Amino acid sequence: MTDPTTIDGFLGGRLQLAQPADRGHRAGLDAVMLAAALPEGSRGRVADLGAGVGAVGFCVAARLGDVTVTFAERAPATLELLARNIAANAPALGDRFSIAAVDIEAPAAVREAAGLTPAAFDHVLMNPPFHAAGRGRASPDPARAEAHVAGPETLERWVRVAAGLLGARGTLTMIWRADGLGDVLAALDRRFGGIDVLPLFPHAFEPAGRVILRGRIGSRAPLALLPGFVLHEPDGGFTPAAAAVLAGAPLPALWRC
């Protein structure tokens, strides 16, 4: 029997995406914020690594008309939903999507055969599994736990794969736990420069829960900690700036690349 799904609206309803109702990873706020971090005017080939049902890549394509998106995903059930979402959104977004059905951590030859060609992309976006094993309570759903929980080498491998996919001056944009910032900076520092760090604050005057990081291949610019972005008002509603992003605006961040 087919697992139940929901149809969820993104960007104020401009996108309608099928997602698993109660199994596996469900895209939400993190995906929209990550997609909104690709600056206005960006163009070229985008790789969405660990794409799930495609929320990040579809949100990027809905805002930026001069990009094509390759979704990299390995889970068969999720790939079915991803193909369904491409078909459903093609009338509005056009024929700008392809799927690489592959594990990000597969051998290089396997990734290349699936369509992840070295140095072929201008931008990589990714939301890797970022909860350390043994930290907190894992989801009882195996698919959802696998999507969220990483072993100690996972981050390093994903960053290495991302760097190999990018051509000269290509950019990586990713979202991560704020309390794991040291780990992700160490992984990025060996391959990327000009790293910008944007903290995402749940409320004003609270510690950041997430950070978005952008870096560029070949840059020698120093790291920059950008002014943070507040998501919620004291009453729990979204701030006007966050509401604008959720409706399809780019993040108003001072990205250097």
TrEMBL record:
<dbReference type="Pfam" id="PF05175">
    <property type="entry name" value="MTS"/>
</dbReference>
<dbReference type="GO" id="GO:0008168">
    <property type="term" value="F:methyltransferase activity"/>
</dbReference>
<dbReference type="InterPro" id="IPR050210">
    <property type="entry name" value="tRNA_Adenine-N(6)_MTase"/>
</dbReference>
<keyword id="KW-0489">Methyltransferase</keyword>
<dbReference type="GO" id="GO:0032259">
    <property type="term" value="P:methylation"/>
</dbReference>
<dbReference type="InterPro" id="IPR029063">
    <property type="entry name" value="SAM-dependent_MTases_sf"/>
</dbReference>
<feature type="domain" description="Methyltransferase small">
    <location>
        <begin position="33"/>
        <end position="134"/>
    </location>
</feature>
<protein>
    <submittedName>
        <fullName>Methyltransferase</fullName>
    </submittedName>
</protein>
<keyword id="KW-0949">S-adenosyl-L-methionine</keyword>
<keyword id="KW-0808">Transferase</keyword>
<dbReference type="InterPro" id="IPR007848">
    <property type="entry name" value="Small_mtfrase_dom"/>
</dbReference>
